[in-house]
Structure formats: C-alpha cells, structure tokens
Amino acid sequence: MSQAMVIIALAIYIYYIPANKMNICLYINVYLPNNASSDALPVMFWIYGGGFEEGNAEKALYGPDYLIEHDVIVVTFNYRLGPFAFLSTGDEILPGNLGLKDQNLALNWTHKNIKYFGGDPEKITIFGESAGGASTGLHLISKRSAGLFRAAIAQSGSALTYWSVELNPRPTAFALADNIGGGNYGNDSAELKKFLKARTTKEIALARSKLSNTATLFPVLEIENENAFLTESPYSLLESGDFNQVPLIIGICAEESLWFLKNVTYAKYVAYLVDTLSDRLIPTDLRPNSSDINSVEKDIKNIYLEKDETFSTNILAFANVSWPKYYYILKSFTVTNVF
After folding, report:
1. Within 10 A of 279 (CB to CB), how many other CB atoms are there?
2. Which of 4, 208, 273, 277 has the most CB atoms less than 10 A away?
3. Quick one: which H or E segment has residue 298?
4. Keywords, A to Z (predicted)?
5. Mean pLDDT, to the nearest integer, of 294-299?
6. Partners of 73 in beta bridges
7. Domain ranges of the chain
8. Is residue 142 within 8 Å of residue 231, measured between CB atoms?
9. What angle do CA 144, 32, 55 make, to 5 degrees?
C-alpha cells in the first residue's frame, strides 16, 4: 500500500548534546494516510519514553506506518529532556517541568492546527510508553491539558509511579551546579540560575553525567504560578476526581523489566530495594518536609523489604474511577532462571 507522509520537521534529541550542536529540539512531525476516507480523521499523539533523560521522535524508532494504513493521522514530536527540561529549585526561580510544558505546547498546536491536515481536533488520543506513559498520566491530571484530547493510552508508565514525580528536586539542582564548579551561589536559587545560564549545554550535560544514580531529574510539583503544569499530587487529584476524565487504556508488558536485569544478581536486587528504593516508596502526596515521611518510609521498609525479599507492588488507583478504563498485560515469551 502506498503511503503519503507529511513531515513538518525532525530532530533527534538526547540530553548529552555533541559540542557542535545546539539545544534546539522543539519540532513536530505529522504523518498522513494516503487516500484518506474522511476529512476529519482521528489523531494519535505519541509521547516517547526514555526516563525523562533521553529519547526522540525519530521515524526509525516510532514510525507511523501501521497506523496511517488505518486512516489515522499520527503526530510525533520532540521535547526537552534531562537537566534542560526538569531541573528545579522547588521555588519560583526554577519551577521545573519544562519538558511537560513542551509536550503541552505540542498538544495545543496539534489541537489548533490538525484540521488543516484533515484531522479532527475532537478526536485526539494521546499515548506514550514508559516516561511517555507517565507523561500521558500527568496530562490526565493537568488543567493545562484539559480539553485538548478525548482519550489516553498509558503504556508501561503511570502518573502514580515513584519516578513520575520528584518530591525534592532542589538538592539535585545545586549538586549539578557543584559538578560544574566555579560558582558562588551558596543556597540562593536566583544566583544558581544566573550561574547555570552562563554555562554551555556541554558543561551542563557533562555535570549531569557526574551526578549519583540517586539524583533524579523527573517532573516536579510546582509552586502555584500561572504557567504551572502540575502543583498537586497525582494521588490527591485522582482521589478527588479533579482530573481530565476521558477513556483510558493502561497496561504493561510481561517481564518487560528483564532488560534492566541482565547484569543483576538476586543479592544485588534485594540490596537495591533495601538501600536505594525504600525512600521512593512513600506516597507522592507527602511533601519532602512532611513530618510523616520518615515514619512512613520506615514502616514500608520493615513490612515489605526486610520481611519479604520478593516484594512487588502494583498500584491500581484507577480501578474505582467512573470513566471507561482498561488494563492489559502483554506477554509474548517466557523467561526462566533470571537470577
């Protein structure tokens, strides 16, 4: 079958930028079917994953071929990542979430302009995988994305995962600047921002590579401001019903984390859970300065990590909501003797 594709632009973006490249990545790709049967086609809006640190909308990775054969317009785009997207001081100086705001900008553009490509702005489905799935979940609860899509598909990611929201981003911001060196910012957010703005993208990317594994650059809960993408806990918003209630498909692939375990022994796995992961198992509606955090963390560690070495959990907070939702587990192979 012949296929016609309209490519608005393409950029490959990962946060470790070559020295001769600029941090310019905000491009959108629009792929159209050939000989479409309608001038108001449904639209699939793809958000790629990569841990909020790497990824791109390259056609070789996320081609539109299958979908455009079925009279669907596919939109893909690039958004900022790593320290250029999610660095935050937890205040009004560097509020964070630039990557999510890039996504929202692309979604707004699509909703406004897709009619000129034969698409129906009222038939936009957002979907993503891993960090893209978590991003999809965050668009579900962000007022900035309200009314811009009619359905969502979150693949192997959710707004409720511990890595979808960083509760205490400030230490990472200062640690990154410390890795560059030569700064005189103390604990002042404004001075830190001034220092970082004077640095090159190469310097910032190199400083990120020197951060410890526990230093994360994820979406954050912003302070209230007119440009904020997210100011409240995903748990709180879902529990209160204050979110964009659209049909949702959410699911995982069986054994999909095995890729991360190729060099992991069982002993290392348990040690990681006990020493590294336990402080991330607290509910995201507890703020970093909450007096309850230490006791909750200790209880979780005692109940699960120290008494049950095979601890695993799956939060299905979506199960009791009223709008259409579906949960899947995709399994196509069996693996034994992992450890």
Report:
1. 15
2. 208
3. helix 293-300
4. Disulfide bond, Glycoprotein, Hydrolase, Serine esterase
5. 68
6. 43
7. 28-255+313-330
8. no
9. 55
